[in-house]
Amino acid sequence: MLARKSIIPEEYVLARIAAENLRKPRIRDRPRKARFIAKNGACNLAHKNIREQGRFLQDIFTTLVDLKWRHTLVIFTMSFLCSWLLFAMMWWLVAFAHGDMDPSTESTANSTKWTPCVTCVRSFTSAFLFSIEVQVTIGFGGRMMTEECPLAITVLILQNIVGLIINAVMLGCIFMKTAQAHRRAETLIFSRQAVIAVRNGKLCFMFRVGDLRKSMIISASVRIQVVRKTTTPEGEVIPIHQVDIPVDNPIESNNIFLVAPLIICHVIDKRSPLYDISAADLALQDLELIVILEGVVETTGITTQARTSYIAEEILWGHRFVPIVTEEEGVYAVDYSKFGNTVKVAAPRCSARELDEKPSILIQTLQKSELSHQNSLRKRNSMRRNNSIRRSNSMRRTNPSLIVPKVQFITPEGSQSASET
């Protein structure tokens, strides 16, 4: 049996598929750009080929604070063990030099008035236990030092000084690691995405910042920097070119009162690096906006800093943050479940430069959004009417008692007429 031929010729199908493939643009995924600042505020920077490693030992305290907890604990544990072993060896040498290790001295000590340097120290184990008792000031009472050896008194003083230094460095390092400034920054949060929308007739770059703790950040200030790769007219390539951009703040100072989540706004004007960027150009831009929040912790008085960054893929054009602060029974309540929620609003897709040159673009955009909003309301109202009519019809069909019966009227001439009410 012959195979069934298609109604459409095969040559036409192949030509059509080829034409569709040519029309569709081939979108290739761009290689993901490395961030300079991660979303959690960590600097994505690796230091390599550092030859002068001795500079870190010159500031040993800062080096210990910067280390990880497991490395710090290992260093302090080894410091105590090494000091105990070192002074245990010194106590053993003092006892050996004085003759306390000789078994014959025990018999002579009972018959004569012979006194050892340290009582009950006749082996390295007992010397190690005595070293621990001296340094941590335990003093069980079995082993004790006498006034027989001045060298033993010198070793005792030296071990106490070394033990105090190790304890002081350990306590200071642990305190600084637990009270570091970035610990307080863990409760300072930023919105995952930033938005660009119209505010007061200007295109603005906006993001939201909040504090989860009730203890406030005093003298909090926000700075924004744009980091991008630039090339100078002389041909020099600057891989990390930082440009400060101003923050719109109605207060003369740059400080903010971070009692509730705030929307930080940057007006895109002639001074802004985003002045010539439109919505279509934003996805092609290789830039990163770094946000830095600095302030003093109210409870400890330590200066803290929280950081985050926004790349082009994390900036929503034509969106606005939803309000999350409401008044409930005389108290302002903050709903953090909507902290990063946005809603789409009308915004021109052109750049801020084009908007300044042609202000009519903004008016036309607002008019179009108003018309679309009215049309959507009309469609919604018509759909509600249709749904109500369908419900009433379905109720009449399902409930026979609601059907109006036909009534016959008899005229004086004797003819019958039926009418339905």
What features would you describe in this structure?
The chain has about 425 residues and is an alpha+beta fold. Strands 1, 2, 3, 7 and 10 form a 5-stranded mixed β-sheet that branches. About 15% of the residues are buried. The protein has helices at about 10-25, 55-60, 60-65, 70-100, 105-110, 125-135, 150-180, 180-185, 280, 350-355, 360-400; strands spanning about 190, 195-200, 200-210, 215-230, 235-245, 255, 260-265, 285-295, 305-310, 315, 320, 325-330, 330-335, 340-345, 405-410, 415-420. Among the domains are: about 65-180, Helix Hairpins (Orthogonal Bundle), CATH 1.10.287.70; about 180-360, G protein-activated inward rectifier potassium channel 1 (Immunoglobulin-like). Mean pLDDT is about 80; it is low at about 1-15, about 20-30 and about 415-420. Helices cover about 40% and strands about 25% of the residues. Helix 4 crosses helix 6 and helix 4 (about 70-100) runs antiparallel to helix 7.
